[in-house]
Write a structure and sequence with these properties.
The complex is a heterodimer of chains A (300) and B (431). Chain A is α/β, with parallel strands linked by helices. Chain A has eleven helices and 14 strands. Chain A is globular. Chain B has 431 residues and is mainly α. The radius of gyration of chain B is 28 Å and the shape is flat. In chain B, 62% of the residues lie in helices and 6% in strands. Chain B has two domains: 262 residues, no CATH class; 124 residues, no CATH class. Classes of the chains: A alpha/beta (300), B mainly alpha (431). At the A-B interface, helix 2 and helix 3 of A face helix 1 and helix 10 of B. Chain A: GO terms for molecular function: ATP binding; ATP hydrolysis activity.
Chain lengths: 300, 431
C-alpha cells in the first residue's frame, strides 16, 4: 500500500517580519481534509507551501513519503487548483487541458485517452471547443479541477474553490471533490464553514498563522455541547444581546427575533439549549483562542 | 510537442503579426528599392564611386589637416557611444594636442598656437562688411581675393621623419584626448580615393566570382533586416512573457512537472523558430526572384539562407533572449527599454562600419552591394561577433532558467519587492 499521508512538523514561514506560519504540526491522511480559517489566517500560505510554490523557513514536510525539497517529485504527485484559477483566455477548453498535460509530462496517447473522460466528469464534455474566456465562473472552476487531476495525482490541493459560486454550482463542486477524495488526499481550504461541514471529516482551523484546532468535525462540534442556546427575544433587545454573546444565527419574525447564540450559562430565562453545529463550534474555538470579541460579535 | 504548442502560441499573437508586418515593410521599402541589377561597369563614366585605401600618403595629410582644423577651432566631433558630441578641450588637453600636432608637422608648438588664434580658428575677412536692409535681411560683403586674412594654413606640412606607425600612435593618443569615438579612431576613412574603371571592374569581378552575385545581395538583405531583427524580437518575447502574468496562470505553470530548464529553453527556441520563419521565407522568395533576374548566371542559390542563418539568426536570438531574461526577472516590459537603448547605441556605432567592418556591433551593417574584399578581410571578426552573440543569448536564457526556478519555488519576487518599495514610499510620504 502506498504511503498516503502528508506530515508537517514545526513548519515556520515568514513574509519579511510577519510570521505567516507558526510551528505548524499536522498529519493529513487519505480523504477530504478541510482547512478552515478567516481570510488572512495563513491557509493559502500553507497550501502554497505544500504545492512547492513557497519556500519554508524551517520545519519538515513530507508528501506521501517525499520530502518537500524534492519539488519535481512533489509536482508529479500533486494537483493544485489555485484560489484564482485562470487560463489563457483565447485557448479552447480541450486545448488548455492538452497544453497543461504536456507540461505535466503526459504523452500524446495518455492525454487523448484521459482528457475527454475528465471533461465529462466535470460536466464540460459539451464545451471542449469553447474558449476559456466564454466559460462561466463555475465552469472555469470545474475546468480547474479537471486540470488538477489530469496527471492523476495522489494529492489534490484546492484553495477556496467555492468562493463566488452560486448554490447549485457549489453543491456540485463539493460532490465532485468528495468523489475525487475516494482515492486521494484532498485538501480543501475555505473560510466557508458550510463547505467543510458538507464534505470533510478531518479538519484544521487556522488563525493568524497558528493552528487552533486539528481533529474531526464531530470532536470539534462536541466542544460546543451545552454552550449553544436558542431564544426568542424582542427586537429591541437584540443589540444588547449581541454585545454580550456571540450570536451565530438569527431569524427575524416581525418584532420578535429568534436568535442562536453561544453562552456558558443560560443567557435569558426563555433560552433553550440546543445541538451545536460546526459553525457554533468554530466560533467558540475562535473565541477561546483569543480572537477579539468585536471580531466575533460578542463574548460568551 | 511542447515546442509546437509554444510555436503556435507565438505565431498566433498580435505582437508577432506586427513584427512580421514591420519585417515585410523593411524588405519592400528598403531592400527592394535600393538594390539594382548588378552589371559590369561601362568605360568612360564620370564617376565610379569612391574606395578606401590604407595608403599612408593619402591618410597622413588628410588626417593631420583634419585634426589641425578641429584643434584650431577647439571643436572636435566625436561619437563616443554612437551619439554625436562636439568636444571642447581644456587648456591642458589642448596643450597635449598641440604637442601631438607639433610632432606630426614639425611646426613649433608656439607657431601652431599662434596660428590657431585666441578666439579659435577659421577664416576671417578683414575688410568685409555687414549691412542690414529695411526688411531686416542681413547681407555680408566679402572682400576680393587677397583682401582677407586666412588664419588656417591652406595645407599643413608633414614632418618627413614621421613614420606611419608613429602617426598611428599619435592619432590614437589624439582620439584618447578627445574621449574616444573621434574621426581618428578609424584612420581608413581618411584614405578615400575615387574609383577608376579598373577598380570598378575588379569589384564587379569579385561580386560575380567570389560572391556569385547573391552573396553581395544577401549582405544588403541582412543589413536591412538586421536593423529590425535586433530590436523587434524583444517585443514578441516580452508580450509572450507577460501573457502568463496577464492570464494569471503563473502559479498553475509553476506546479507542473516539467523542469524549468526544459520549459524555458523549449519556449525560447519555439519563439526563435517562429521569429526566424518569416526571414527564411523572405530569403527563399528573394532567392527565387534573384535566380529569375540572373538567368544563365552562376549564382549561389543558398547565399540568402546562409546569411540569414549566420548573420540574422544571432541577432534574433540575442534580442529575444534579452526579452525573455528581463521579463522573467521583473515581470515588467523593461526589456524593451533595455534592448531599445542597446539597439540605438548599436545602430549609431554601426554607422562607422556601414560599408562593412563589423567589430563587436550588435547590428551588422553592410549597406553596400559589393565591398567583397572588406567582407572577406573581416570575415573572422564577423564569425567571432556572431558566435559571441549566440553564446550570449544562450547564457541569458540559462540565467532565465535559474531565475524561473527561484520564482517557481517562492525564493524570488522582484516585482513584489518593487511594489513593496513603492507602497512603503507612498505610506511614508502620506505620513
Amino acid at each position: 500500500m502506498d504511503n498516503m499521508q502528508i506530515e508537517i512538523s514545526n513548519l515556520n514561514k515568514f513574509y519579511g517580519k510577519k510570521h505567516a506560519l507558526q510551528n505548524i504540526n499536522l498529519s493529513i491522511g487519505q480523504g477530504m481534509f478541510g482547512l478552515l480559517g478567516r481570510n488572512g489566517a495563513g491557509k493559502t500560505t500553507l497550501m502554497k507551501t505544500l504545492a512547492t510554490l513557497l519556500n519554508k523557513k524551517s520545519g519538515d514536510i513530507t508528501v506521501c513519503g517525499i520530502p518537500i525539497q524534492n519539488a519535481k517529485e512533489i509536482c508529479r504527485i500533486t494537483g493544485y487548483l489555485p484560489q484564482e484559477f485562470s487560463m489563457y483566455p483565447s485557448m479552447k477548453v480541450y486545448e488548455a487541458m492538452d497544453y497543461l498535460g504536456v507540461l505535466s509530462g503526459l504523452d500524446c496517447k495518455t492525454r487523448k485517452g484521459r482528457i475527454p473522460g475528465l471533461l465529462e466528469k466535470v460536466n464540460l464534455g459539451d464545451h471542449h471547443r469553447t474558449k476559456v474566456k466564454a466559460l462561466s465562473g463555475g465552469m472555469k472552476r470545474r475546468l480547474g479541477i479537471a486540470q488538477a487531476i489530469l496527471h492523476d495525482p495522489k494529492v489534490l490541493i484546492v484553495d477556496e474553490p467555492t468562493a463566488g459560486l452560486d448554490p447549485e454550482e457549489r453543491i456540485r463542486f463539493r460532490n465532485l471533490l468528495c468523489e475525487l477524495a475516494e482515492e486521494r488526499i484532498v485538501i480543501l481550504s475555505t473560510h466557508i464553514v458550510g463547505d467543510i461541514e458538507a464534505t470533510c471529516e478531518d479538519i484544521a482551523i487556522m488563525d493568524n498563522g497558528k493552528l487552533l484546532y486539528k481533529g474531526t468535525v464531530k470532536e470539534l462540534t462536541r466542544t460546543a455541547t451545552n454552550k449553544v442556546y436558542t431564544a426568542e427575544i424582542a427586537r429591541i433587545e437584540l443589540n444588547a444581546l449581541k454585545e454580550k454573546y456571540i450570536v451565530t444565527g438569527m431569524l427575524t419574525m416581525g418584532e420578535r427575533v429568534n436568535v442562536r447564540l453561544l453562552a456558558n450559562e443560560q443567557p435569558t430565562t426563555n433560552a433553550i439549549l440546543c445541538e451545536p453545529n460546526i459553525e457554533d463550534a468554530y466560533m467558540l474555538r475562535m473565541h477561546e483562542s483569543g480572537v477579539a470579541a468585536h471580531q466575533l460579535g460578542g463574548n460568551l | 510537442m511542447m515546442f509546437l504548442k509554444e510555436f503556435k502560441k507565438t505565431i498566433m499573437s498580435l505582437t508577432y503579426l506586427i513584427f512580421v508586418g514591420i519585417l515585410l515593410l523593411m524588405y519592400v521599402t528598403q531592400y527592394e528599392t535600393s538594390v539594382a541589377k548588378i552589371e559590369a561597369p561601362q568605360k568612360g563614366l564620370q564617376s565610379y564611386g569612391v574606395k578606401y585605401e590604407e595608403n599612408k600618403e593619402i591618410i597622413i595629410p588628410n588626417a593631420v589637416e583634419s585634426l589641425y582644423g578641429e584643434f584650431s577651432a577647439n571643436s572636435y566631433i566625436a561619437y563616443p557611444i554612437g551619439f554625436y558630441k562636439n568636444v571642447k578641450l581644456g587648456d591642458k588637453k589642448q596643450g597635449e594636442m598641440v604637442a601631438i600636432l607639433s610632432e606630426m608637422t614639425g611646426i613649433s608648438k608656439d607657431d601652431l598656437m599662434a596660428d590657431a588664434g585666441t578666439d579659435g580658428a577659421g577664416i576671417t575677412f578683414g575688410e568685409g562688411d555687414m549691412v542690414t536692409n529695411e526688411s531686416g535681411e542681413i547681407t555680408f560683403t566679402v572682400p576680393g581675393e587677397g583682401e582677407g586674412k586666412e588664419v588656417l594654413p591652406s595645407r599643413i606640412s608633414i614632418d618627413q621623419k614621421l613614420t606611419y606607425e608613429r602617426f598611428r600612435e599619435l592619432m590614437k593618443d589624439a582620439d584618447k584626448l578627445i574621449g574616444g569615438g573621434s574621426k581618428y579612431s578609424n584612420l581608413t576613412d581618411f584614405g578615400s580615393v575615387p574609383m577608376t574603371y579598373e577598380d570598378a571592374l575588379v569589384e564587379y569581378k569579385a561580386i560575380v566570382e567570389k560572391d556569385k552575385i547573391t552573396g553581395a545581395l544577401a549582405r544588403v538583405f541582412s543589413d536591412y533586416l538586421g536593423i529590425v531583427l535586433s530590436i523587434f524580437p524583444v517585443f514578441v518575447a516580452v508580450a509572450l512573457g507577460l501573457k502568463d502574468r496577464r492570464a494569471k496562470i503563473q502559479e498553475l505553470l509553476y506546479t507542473r512537472r516539467i523542469s524549468s530548464f526544459r520549459f524555458m529553453f523549449t519556449r525560447y527556441f519555439a519563439m526563435v523558430a517562429a521569429l526566424f520563419l518569416p526571414v527564411l521565407l523572405m530569403a527563399l522568395y528573394v532567392t527565387v526572384q534573384t535566380a529569375n533576374q540572373y538567368r544563365g548566371v552562376d549564382i549561389d542559390l543558398f547565399a540568402f539562407i546562409k546569411y540569414s542563418c549566420g548573420s540574422l539568426l544571432p541577432s534574433i536570438m540575442v534580442s529575444a533572449a534579452v526579452g525573455v531574461c528581463l521579463t522573467v526577472l521583473t515581470d515588467t516590459p523593461i526589456a524593451i527599454a533595455a534592448q531599445g537603448i542597446w539597439w540605438f547605441i548599436g545602430i549609431n556605432m554601426g554607422l562607422q562600419h556601414i560599408d562593412g567592418g563589423y567589430g563587436s556591433d550588435l547590428v551588422i551593417r553592410h549597406n553596400k552591394v559589393g565591398n567583397t574584399d572588406v567582407y572577406l578581410d573581416n570575415f573572422n571578426t564577423l564569425v567571432i561577433n556572431r558566435i559571441s552573440y549566440t553564446l550570449l543569448a544562450i547564457a541569458l536564457v540559462a540565467l532565465s532558467v535559474w531565475i524561473y526556478e527561484l520564482k517557481r519555488r517562492g525564493k524570488l519576487d522582484v516585482l513584489g519587492s518593487i511594489k513593496k518599495i513603492f507602497i512603503h514610499r507612498k505610506v511614508e510620504s502620506k505620513a
